[in-house]
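Title: Comparing notes on inverse folding

I've been comparing how different people in this forum approach sequence design from structure. To keep things fair, I'm posting one structure and asking everyone to reply with a full sequence. Here's the target:
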């Protein structure tokens, strides 16, 4: 292991840390958004702002970091601050500096590192912003490095604000000494919000000379809609003699002398001057930053070669189309793959190949009926390039397979027309797979997956063909593709993810809980619904470990949501039968709850009749131990099997879930309605709670309410969604958990 060098300016560098108030090694919450953005932007499990001390390092902010050796000798960031640009280590095992580093060979298993120094205003490297992964990466591009530098500049700005705040708490110099010549816009004002001092940078930001601002109200610099909020906030600060715990906006609408408005970042600090409170506002013009953020969002949603939507954007748009509030919402997905495109690349070169891809993109965009470079912004039809020579079309409003197939034929015909590139007239063919919703799918992942299966079928039938999805294609794909090695890889690479379907109180529609549902982020097929792989998983050797992961992941998410907006949320987790046979399930569940700080009643474990019948000798004891500790026990798909009634007397249940088949049929069948009524009557007799599954219409909801059913879940309320979407839907903060 090669130790990092000691810089010639080490003494000045350490003094810069002290000047920024970082010698105490405290975390800086203002840097948390930076590391979260970095982790999301580069798809890395770990991101951190590391400050490098004399003999050790410490985190000013981090995400996804576990227990680490914090010695400077083993720190990657201590190496990064010794160079001017971005330090990228594609594979630590192949780098002579780090191949035997404990962070590489130990439990942390760092295999990739990229870091950029964070500089003080004098140019001293105080630390580094970095991203890490337990997998090597050889694709961290020059563009990625520039994005990391941009984030580092954002972190440096926030460190500078912290330095200003820290210095304000020490012996405060005069305004001219402190901020008179600073390029950072600074304003001092008094308890009456009168400007007592303003530097040239702040005055110029608003189009004034400093003399025009002194003595004027702070409102001079703000848009009218901001007056009331700032006045109330300052009044509360004066009353409390503190800014602590006050909700003062950090972004406001500023006003220039000419009356134009702009986005203004504002950070407020407070101190006493001659017995009176004085305030400091550090300002920042956010116009350029917003423009850069918009550009980054556009880049994150667009394919750089063709300008079409990229894969991630396409999946989001399909999901949006299927989540339409309209009960008769329909949509078709067409997946297209160019025939013989590799031959074109091999014979005419990649420049011609890229030109062909751009022309195909233009033709598909015209077919979809939207402007090419606005595809990812439209809420109507959308064309996307998913990667390589694979394209896709989303066509909302088309639910008839024959109509969708006619459009597929038009797309194939349009692509087959001659393309002239660099003096070459080229013809390429295309194959297409078609799937429609809601006839063939109700979820985005299922709809896209069905179209992809149909595309595979079309390609087996010959070039230039289209194929419409039929259920037999999915069954054949499951039998052909899902086998042990794929699931081994999925678990090893972290491809399994959780979606969450809300559960609501029928009385008022308020959120009561969520059911955790597994999905598979397949590297070739995209996100797979449970039907594609759950039978293979349940019957294989990985069920126990995956079940433990689901339990831990769902509890972590529940704990986070309960702390951030949903204090009484209940998380439902489905169990695999093998979890009762391997290890001590009761001990594992209680330890998981304790680890995440959850009370037992925050968790509801769901069992099915198959689990009971297959493991009847061990299940009751395990469930009683858990129920005695307060964990909820729900029986899923109630009424569909043979052992349902006996379960009410022999198992420690707290809830029964009415199967969707009864809910779907109760309005049209007296028998189905009687079954639902009987289940609810039994539940009340046994003092059990109930939840109805598969509620899709307002009429079903009203019938269940009239029968005094307590809770429900189903498409009427929400489809299963990611943690981020769930959080946005219910006003919660989303948890992005990094791999250990």
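Reply #1:
Here's my take.
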């Amino acid at each position: 292991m090669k130790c990092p060098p000691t810089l010639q300016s080490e003494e000045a560098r350490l003094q810069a840390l002290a000047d920024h108030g970082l010698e105490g090694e405290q975390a800086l919450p203002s840097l948390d958004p930076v590391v979260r953005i970095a982790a999301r932007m580069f798809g890395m499990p770990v991101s951190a702002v590391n400050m490098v001390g004399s003999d050790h390092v410490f985190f000013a902010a981090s995400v996804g970091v576990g227990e680490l050796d914090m010695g400077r000798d083993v720190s990657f960031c201590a190496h990064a601050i010794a160079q001017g640009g971005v330090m990228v280590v594609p594979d630590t095992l192949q780098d002579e500096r780090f191949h035997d580093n404990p962070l590489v060979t130990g439990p942390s298993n760092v295999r990739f590192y990229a870091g950029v120094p964070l500089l003080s205003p004098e140019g001293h490297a105080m630390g580094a912003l970095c991203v890490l992964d337990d997998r090597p990466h050889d694709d961290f591009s020059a563009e990625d490095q520039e994005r990391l530098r941009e984030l580092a500049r954002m972190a440096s700005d926030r460190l500078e604000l912290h330095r200003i705040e820290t210095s304000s708490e020490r012996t405060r110099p005069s305004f001219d000494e402190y901020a008179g010549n600073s390029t950072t816009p600074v304003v001092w004002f008094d308890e009456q919000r009168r400007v007592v001092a303003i530097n040239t940078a702040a005055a110029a930001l608003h189009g004034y000379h400093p003399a025009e601002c002194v003595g004027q109200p702070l409102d001079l610099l703000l848009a009218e809609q901001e007056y009331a909020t700032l006045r109330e906030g300052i009044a509360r600060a004066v009353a409390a003699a503190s800014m602590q715990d006050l909700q003062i906006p950090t972004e406001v609408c500023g006003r220039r002398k000419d009356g134009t408005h702009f986005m203004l970042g504002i950070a407020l600090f407070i101190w006493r001057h001659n017995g009176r409170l004085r305030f400091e506002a550090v300002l920042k013009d956010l116009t350029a930053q917003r423009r850069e953020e918009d550009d980054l969002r556009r880049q994150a949603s667009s394919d750089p070669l063709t300008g079409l939507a990229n894969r991630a954007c396409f999946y989001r748009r399909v999901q949006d189309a299927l989540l339409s509030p309209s009960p008769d919402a329909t949509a078709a997905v067409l997946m297209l793959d160019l025939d013989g495109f590799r031959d074109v690349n091999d014979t005419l070169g990649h420049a011609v190949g890229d030109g062909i891809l751009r022309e195909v993109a233009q033709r598909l965009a015209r077919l979809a009926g939207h402007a090419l470079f606005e595809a990812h912004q439209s809420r109507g039809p959308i064309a996307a390039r998913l990667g390589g020579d694979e394209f896709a079309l989303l066509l909302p409003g088309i639910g008839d397979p024959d109509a969708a197939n006619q459009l597929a034929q038009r797309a194939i015909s349009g692509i087959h027309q001659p393309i002239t590139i660099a003096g070459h007239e080229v013809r390429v063919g295309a194959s297409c797979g078609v799937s429609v919703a809601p006839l063939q799918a109700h979820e985005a992942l299922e709809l896209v997956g069905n179209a992809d299966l149909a595309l595979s079928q079309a390609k087996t039938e010959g070039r230039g063909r289209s194929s419409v999805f039929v259920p037999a294609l999915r069954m054949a794909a499951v039998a052909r593709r899902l086998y042990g090695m794929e699931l081994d890889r999925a678990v090893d690479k972290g491809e399994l993810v959780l979606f969450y379907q809300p559960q609501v109180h029928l009385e008022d529609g308020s959120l009561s809980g969520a059911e955790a549902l597994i999905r598979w982020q397949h590297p070739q097929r995209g996100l797979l619904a449970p039907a594609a792989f759950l039978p293979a998983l349940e019957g294989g050797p990985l069920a126990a470990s995956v079940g433990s992961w689901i339990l831990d992941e769902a509890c972590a998410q529940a704990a986070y949501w309960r702390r951030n907006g949903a204090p009484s949320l209940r998380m439902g987790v489905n169990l695999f039968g093998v979890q009762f046979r391997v290890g001590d399930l009761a001990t594992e569940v209680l330890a998981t709850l304790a680890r995440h700080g959850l009370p037992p009643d925050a968790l509801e474990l769901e069992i099915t009749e198959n689990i009971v019948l297959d493991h009847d000798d061990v299940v009751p004891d395990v469930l009683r131990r858990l129920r005695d500790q307060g964990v909820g026990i729900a029986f899923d798909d109630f009424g569909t099997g043979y052992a349902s009634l006996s379960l009410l007397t022999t198992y420690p249940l707290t809830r029964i879930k009415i199967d969707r088949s009864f809910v779907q049929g109760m309005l049209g069948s007296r028998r189905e309605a009687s079954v639902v009524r009987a289940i609810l009557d039994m539940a009340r007799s046994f003092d059990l709670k109930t939840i109805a599954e598969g509620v899709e219409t307002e009429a079903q909801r009203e019938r269940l309410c009239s029968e005094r059913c307590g809770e429900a879940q189903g498409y009427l309320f929400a489809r299963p969604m990611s943690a981020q979407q769930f959080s946005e839907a219910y006003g919660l903060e989303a948890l992005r958990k990094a791999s250990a």
